[in-house]
Amino acid sequence: MIYFPNNEKELRGIIGEKNIIISGGTDVMVRRRIGKIDESSDFISLDKIKDLNSITEEKDGIRIFCRATHSDILDSLVIKNNFPILIDAVSEIGSTQIRNRGSLVGNVVNASPAGDGILALFLLDAILEIVNSEGDVKNIKVEDFITGPGKTMLQSNEYVRSVKIPFLNREYHQMFRKIGQRKAMAISIASMGLLIETRGDKISDLRIAFGSVAPKVLRLYKAEKEAFGRNLDLNTVRYLSNIVFEEVSPIDDIRSSAEYRRKVCRNLVLELEDTLNINNN
Questions:
Q1: Cα 77 to chain center, whole Å?
Q2: What is the pTM of this model?
């Protein structure tokens, strides 16, 4: 059975253990086929709750509501101007049809280690707004919300209302790269996101994370700490690439071997030499 609540009050009245909330529903058949969704589960569609469609600019950040699609994000000028890494990541998700239906919040709740949008949200310190059946609200960082492959902190009587991305207070170069088995509509073998700020020739801040190499998106705090204060040159890039090679812990699967993934991650860091116009003078 599928329920179609007209507003959030009706939604809060029917959420529960046997009800699965869907927005675009792009992963429903796949998840049911592999046993991630119980055959006896009912669905709650958010299609009629128009208040959850928007992307709004607030004083200290951008709020993306749970029904806002990937295409809505790609069309958002404020996101393009402030968070190009999210635009680059979302543009890699599925096909046009999937982007027209699927949502960023749905991407987060599915909690795939290969989630392109999730990787960007980790680096942007994004925060989820979670509401329970009583209307109580709590806020959790995306990085803390996801606990493993397909696993989150979301309780059966809760739903994610929105994700908020705080404005950056620094001038970062933002970058997203993805390696797949083909050029389009591919689940990544490995992906990398990076925000870097420099002052003069030195690195004043670095945020770096990888997808598809751990049970969830992996943010490399060791590499970030080691980069601080170093010259942005080829020696530093090579040094960081070796840290990445040691720190990522992928597995073998149908798409790639663990060893190949580790090499891909190292090579993605080495590509910074060209991306950031680094020389070794």
A1: 19
A2: 0.90
